[in-house]
Amino acid sequence: MYTKEFEIRWNDIDANRHLANQAYIAYAAHTRMSFLIEHGFNQQLLQEKNIGPVVFYEHIYYFKEVFAGKPVKVSLELTGLSDDAKFFAFRHNYYDHKGRNFASCEMMGGWIDLKSRTLIGLEPEIRSLFDMAHKAEDFKELTKEDTRKFNKKPKDLN
User: What residue range is the signal peptide (predicted)?
Assistant: First the structure.
C-alpha cells in the first residue's frame, strides 16, 4: 500500500494545538497527487491532455488527536473506479509514528476537460495508471449513481 510521510508543521496545528482539519485534507490531497505523479500522471500529462481532477466530497472520520513533534503517515487505497475512469474514489488512513490509526478519509472525484469544463473519461493508457494503486477489499466499479448516493442538491438563496 502506498504511504506518504509528513512532518506536522506549525501551520498544520489549530487553536487546540492538535492537527487542524485543513491539514487532514491537504495531506490526503498531497498523498493522492504524489502517488499519481510517481506513476507518470504528472502536471505535464495533465497539461497535454487538458484535464484536471475535481473532488466531489471528502469525509473525514477522527479517532484520536495527534500533535506536532512526530511524523505521521497517510496511506492511499483505491476504493472505486468507473470503467472509463471518469469517476474515482480513494480511502486514506492516517497513522501516528507508532503505526496507530488516528483518522480516516473517504473521497470521490472525477476528471474534467479544462476547456469544456465537463466530466470526461480517461484514455485507456492513462486509465491503466490506476492499476498500480492498491485496491481496497471493498473496491467497486463506480457508476454515475454512486456520485449521487448522498442525494445532496444545491439550494440557492431566494
Answer: none
Query: Is 153 contained in some domain?
Result: no
152 in any annotated domain: no
Tens digits of residue pLDDT in 93-144: 999 999 999 999 999 999 999 999 999 999 998 999 899 999 999 999 999 9
Own/partner pairs, 130-137, CB within 8 angstroms, 24+ separation: 130/78, 130/81, 130/85, 130/88, 132/39, 133/2, 133/35, 133/76, 133/77, 133/78, 133/90, 134/1, 134/2, 134/76, 134/77, 134/78, 135/77, 135/78, 135/79, 136/77, 136/78, 136/79, 136/91
Residue 150 lies in a domain: no
